[in-house]
Amino acid sequence: MDIILASGSPRRKQLLAQMGIETFRVISSDADETVEPGLSPARIVEILSARKAEAVADHAKPGGLVIAADTIVALDGAVLGKPNDGLEAFRMLSALSGRRHQVYTGVTLLRDGERRTEHEVTTVTFRELTQD
Hints:
Low-confidence stretches: none
């Protein structure tokens, strides 16, 4: 079966290999990742994983499977985006230090126009960090 991973993430490639899926193509999605304000983190990852799968669906052979995912971090219900620079990364890590936060991952499977999207939430306890 033709399997496409709609991600260039080394970790996502590794996860497929750990599941015994060794033959697949990687096609990174350039899908728009903007979403309307006010959506829950769960809804955001579901929308974005579906959008990524749809963006590469034309590359799949008939009967082929497209796998796409999106992951975000939320602290006190607020989504933490990707930091733009070192200072922003420092601020985010400082905010997470010694606290619990949630990691949301949405996964979409797309095959011959039929789509299945789910999400999972993991609560992570971040150890206390020093300023160094």
